[in-house]
Amino acid sequence: MERTRAKFKVVGKTEGTDGTGNVSLQAVHAGSEENEAFFRYTPAGSINLNILNPQAMAAFEQGAEYYVDFTKAE
Fold first, then answer.
1. Which of 31, 33, 36, 56 has the least C-beta neighbours within 10 A?
2. Mean pLDDT across the stretch 50-59?
3. Does residue 74 lie in a domain region?
């Protein structure tokens, strides 16, 4: 199974009183040699997640960077 890896940064996080919310991520472009390498292959991209699970919401930190792996569903 082939996998494509990208790297995204949390650029926005809005959390409700019940722990649900929204997380916005954008493809990295600078800040480290690794980020510049990712930028060469994925210069732009965004992910917007509406999250209903408070534990999943807590896993995202404003400003933190995350790897995102894409694997074709069979």
1. 33
2. 96
3. no
- Any residues with CB less than 8 A from the CB of 33 and at least 6 apart, and which? none
Sequence length of the chain is 74
Which residues, 6+ apart, have CB-to-CB distance to 27 below 8 Å?
6, 7, 8, 9, 38, 39, 42, 43, 44, 45, 46
Rounded to whole angstroms, how far apart are CA atoms 24 and 18?
19
Which range marks the domain in which residue 59 is found?
A: 3-69
pTM for the structure as a whole: 0.84
Q: What does the alpha-carbon distance between residue 55 and residue 20 come to, in Å, rounded to a whole number?
A: 9
